[in-house]
Amino acid sequence: MLNDIRKNKSFISIVNLIGRIFSFLPPNIITTISLIVVFFSGYYYYLGLAHIGAIILALSGFFDLVDGSVAKYTNRTTILGGFLDSTFDRIGDGIVLLGIGLSYDLTICFIIMIGAYLISYMRAKGEALGVKVMGIGIGERAERILIIFVFSFINLELGLYVLLIVVYITVLTRFYYISKNLTKT
């Protein structure tokens, strides 16, 4: 859903500008900075300071956007860079959910994390089998981060239940979509 914004011309212009501004840094260093920053987000969530955790999570998300825009702008996109980005995203997801879980509810965060990892795995496996999966479901990574961010300022415990529902609707949607497309081949 939010991935559709990437096709918007205004958004593309902003991303290109960001790529120019940060082009002095290697993209993989920016990816690593994003990972380091997300550890602080998880730590503040663990301390029960959801507002600070959310702001730091947004900063990490900004760096996660910047790495790709710098790579494209400087013509330094690599398979390794894509692999690092995906891997570090999964680590970051786990760190934030662990921090929230240790402060609020570890069981629900663990169940959410399994679903979030399934969403990522199903996309990778589905696409490896020839099924285009990006954009399928209501809870891709950007939506999950947005839910955590918004509910960090409203009621994070309620947000966890919203996130749980969104994650498993996405898992079921992807499972059905991929299964349906694989039976056609």
TrEMBL record:
EC number: 2.7.8.39
A Pfam family it matches: CDP-OH_P_transf
Top-level EC class as recorded in UniProt: transferase
Any one Gene Ontology molecular-function term assigned to this protein's record: phosphotransferase activity, for other substituted phosphate groups
InterPro entries in UniProt: CDP-OH_P_trans, CDP-OH_PTrfase_TM_dom
Transmembrane regions listed in the UniProt entry: 21-40, 46-66, 95-119
Gene Ontology biological process terms in this record: phospholipid biosynthetic process
Keyword field contains Transmembrane: yes
Keywords, in A-Z order: Membrane, Transferase, Transmembrane, Transmembrane helix
Keyword Transmembrane helix among record annotations: yes
Name of the protein in question: Archaetidylinositol phosphate synthase
